[in-house]
Amino acid sequence: MTVWAVANQKGGVGKTTTTVSLGGLLAAWGYRTLLIDIDPHGSLTSYFRYDPDALDVSAYALFEAQGQKKPLDPLSLVHPTGTQGLDLIPASVSLATLDRQSGQLQGLGLTLTNAVKAVRDDYDYVLIDCPPVLGVLLINALAACDRLLIPVQTEFLAIKGLERMLHTLKMVARSKGHALDYLVIPTYYDKRTRASRESLSVLQRNHGGHLWDGVIPVDTRFREASRAGMPPAQYDARARGVEAYIALLEQLQQDQRNK
Amino acid sequence: MTVWAVANQKGGVGKTTTTVSLGGLLAAWGYRTLLIDIDPHGSLTSYFRYDPDALDVSAYALFEAQGQKKPLDPLSLVHPTGTQGLDLIPASVSLATLDRQSGQLQGLGLTLTNAVKAVRDDYDYVLIDCPPVLGVLLINALAACDRLLIPVQTEFLAIKGLERMLHTLKMVARSKGHALDYLVIPTYYDKRTRASRESLSVLQRNHGGHLWDGVIPVDTRFREASRAGMPPAQYDARARGVEAYIALLEQLQQDQRNK
Ligand SMILES: Nc1ncnc2c1ncn2[C@@H]1O[C@H](COP(=O)(O)OP(=O)(O)OP(=O)(O)O)[C@@H](O)[C@H]1O
Ligand SMILES: Nc1ncnc2c1ncn2[C@@H]1O[C@H](COP(=O)(O)OP(=O)(O)OP(=O)(O)O)[C@@H](O)[C@H]1O
Ligand SMILES: [Mg+2]
Ligand SMILES: [Mg+2]
Predict the structure, then answer these.
(1) B164 with A43: Cβ contact below 8 A
(2) Which of A13, A242, B82, B188 is buried most, with the most CB atoms less than 10 Å from its CB?
(3) B133: which chain A residues are within 8 Å (Cβ-Cβ)?
């Protein structure tokens, strides 16, 4: 089983879109795929028409059980997404309280690591959609994943934020005793604008070894897919944004085989 | 003096862009304007070429002083922005630790309220740029502001997030004993896409009384302005995005006069 976390402290760069696009493709290609939404704002959960305000059964239960040292089978939290082969452990707003509680509830740091281990015979891939903030939730995802995927909008502010985030992540990884394996994914690429082209060459200069050699183009079909509540690949397999995520997924699987 | 906070738990909807656009216009129109960045990720701070990782003097000092009950003059934290009449209290990454500390440091909730009171003779407007997460920082901004501005992308996921956020904000305001005065601002509007047009009519149906009757259109000049480190109005006063923010600011000032 392979675990990928999708994270960036900058908001609105395409974290949820990347999670649901790769998830939909993996399911379409026949892999048993689990999505876990740990963003208290719950975009991925809303995407599949669940309400993070009203859910009793959510990812929060994993942290609660870990804090109280009670056993809990993660499979009991799984919800269907309407797409064959694609399951979801949704978010709830109570996840937002975890940072404040992390002083009291000991040992929260490995909650997701334990949860994904418990389902390793049930799924081929687990994708974790993260909130745009550095805290106990993001650190959990870092500890649990085999590889970190970092979508970055091809524009100035997002690139500056990337340096900072990588600086923090490397510190966190070092304190956990393992090197951080990450891939930067340029998103919202619009070849007509100078801002996009210039940002891409800055990324190539500064992050060459960890940068995917493709781009996810601007594509309005992503917004339409979310309105329809279907992963982009299932909504419109020929959309240019979906074709770009196919190329990304082929690269990610190629890297796995080379390991 | 007038205090506006700009917030939305959804990431990447144009919070920082709205703060810097309105701030640049207010300064150009001759108002003494202070921007406060309380997003630990520090997009507004990076916008003006400061590094949230390396800053010793930042908004964090306000919370530290409040927690330790030590006096601190907020004017000692002010940095220039390069635009006449526009000042900045920048963010630093240490703001991210406040949620975890809020258990230990008592009375953090009114930090910003006290800070803006202390500068009321020095500025005409204070604008607060918030992080995309519900926590002690956002609650501080709610308590300190006269009005809350909520940028919302005209697309499905962002609209679902808005309902949830308003639900939470109303609860917070109630616990503080005052009604929440807010304005929803449609951003990233692209009249060519059905997703934008449909989302706007959903907003009109569900939030009529608190919805600005204009829209901020999609405009690539915003990304270019951030690359140049200048507020959009100073970068290109005739850009259609700037013209939309002018219409918004005129409405906000009209509402103030009507109060
Ligand atoms: N390549 C793209 N082209 C056009 N629109 C896109 C693209 N990627 C994402 N979007 C749209 O941009 C918006 C933000 O994307 P998304 O919600 O995936 O970002 P995020 O990083 O998960 O945000 P948050 O920080 O709130 O978690 C959504 O409306 C989505 O449909
Ligand atoms: N109306 C618009 N048209 C086109 N681009 C825009 C518009 N508004 C904002 N942008 C661009 O979208 C990106 C995200 O905007 P911004 O950083 O202001 O969002 P935010 O809500 O502050 O994000 P965060 O959640 O990270 O704080 C920036 O690159 C900005 O230049
Ligand atoms: Mg998201
Ligand atoms: Mg911002």
Answers:
(1) no
(2) A13
(3) 40-41, 96, 131-133
